[in-house]
Amino acid sequence: MAQSKVVLLLLLAGFLSAVSCDSNRVYDTYKSIPNKWHKDSVVSFNISPPDSTNAYNLFVNLRNTNDYRFNNLFLIVEMQFPHGKTIKDTLEYRMADPTGKLLGTGYTDVKENKLWYKEGVIFNESGTYTVNIQHAMRENGKANGVVELTGVTDVGFRIENKTNNN
Question: Which residues pair with residue 156 across a beta bridge?
Fold first, then answer.
């Protein structure tokens, strides 16, 4: 019985230290991509911003495996504001170095990438914001997009407090 309490306390301490190390995090959610990411599949996040006075940095988070076969990634990210305004961006990110080695963090074949989306955003409208993320990959020399993108396992969205260090 005493041993199980020690194990429980160690697990709790580990969890608390992991959470407390990420003090800039305001919102951080992932959604799984089943098998392949279809070009028409939109990953959506509904966000209720914490306040309307502070500035925040926004990120797209992505987990991918070695099955991801491109050096870059094109995303269409759309932010819908509560009162009807919409901002749509087409973004490109490097996903591999010149040798083809995937970028990102992680010790297994799953790499995690924290990709800049917007800096210093102030959520000055009250209500729910919706962020929609869709891939826009194309193969070189081909007009039609990649229908099913392999190797992406999760897509996430993250909001951090903007600090003087960022």
Answer: 30, 61
45-88: per-residue pLDDT in tens? Answer: 999 987 888 999 999 999 999 999 999 999 999 999 999 999 99
Structure tokens at 92: 């490109």
Domains of the chain: 26-161 (2.60.120)
Cα–Cα dist 127/49, whole Å: 8
- Contacts of 85-92 spanning 24+ positions with Cβ under 8 A: 89/117, 90/136, 91/60, 91/115, 91/117
Cα–Cα dist 150/64, whole Å:
9
| Distance separating alpha carbons of residues 72 and 52, to the nearest angstrom | 34
Q: Which residues are CB-neighbours of 147 under 8 A, at least 6 positions away?
A: 38, 39
Q: E strands, the chain, where? A: 25-32, 36-38, 43-47, 55-64, 72-80, 86-94, 111-122, 129-135, 148-150, 152-161
Check: CB of residue 159 under 8 Å from CB of residue 54.
no
